[in-house]
Amino acid sequence: AFPTRDRGDAARRLYESHVQAAIRLSDSYRISGALLGILLVALSAALVILKLRRSAKALDRERQLAETLLLNVLPKPIAERLKLNPDVIADSFPTATVLFADLVGFSQLSARLPAIELVRLLNRIFSSLDLIAEHHGLEKIKTIGDAYMVVSGLPLARPDHAQAMADFALAAIDELSQIRTERGENLQFRIGINSGSVIAGVIGVRKFAYDLWGDTVNIASRMEMHGIPDAIHCAESTYQLLKDRYEFTARGSIPIKGIGPMQTYLLTGHKKA
After folding, report:
1. Which residues are catalytic?
2. 3 state SS of 113
3. C or N: which end of the chain has fewer Cβ atoms within 10 Å?
4. Degrees, nearest 5: CA angle 128-129-134
5. Tens digits of per-residue pLDDT, 89-106?
């Protein structure tokens, strides 16, 4: 009986050792499985975060592109207002200065130059005017064929709107003179300026634009129409704002289409100290 009992005890101990080994192995498998699961969850979370970050960056790039395009169409204060309240935007400004610049002899130039050369030339000229306008804090409104329209004193009012516009006009004449030398083309601006009250707003649903209306705008356009090549033609209101700081030549009373006789002046430069 004793040998049998000893063999039974040995068998029991062997069984218990196998059971304990199996439990330990099971625990190690369970721990490894848990760690693997955690790792898979972490990797999945990392992939989701990476995709979200990429999507956020793509959305941010799209937003910045849309913002840039919007600011190329509208002044920044107007764009901000339009984003907050997409309703009709209309403002009245009691005093501002409007300028129209037109290329003299553009019809003959367009008939002679190839299309690509003509567009490159216009882009060279108007891009230069854009930089000058930005330097003087003016707001470009639009180009109309070979004409350029810019305003000073809105959408943010400024007391020196007429002076800023006069400096822009003089710089534009100088810039076109340099381009004329570069290209060997007989390029000249006919410039008209007027100061007064204007109405400004955003119109349209597609290809909307920030534009100006009022007698001040109409008279500025007439100043350009009745101007002299390579000269800056100013209405009486602008002359009164600038006469103490700038040199003028009086043109006398001239008939203005749709308005009648008006006293106008040619801006020639700054007054010397």
Report:
1. 222, 257
2. coil
3. C
4. 100
5. 778 889 999 999 998 888
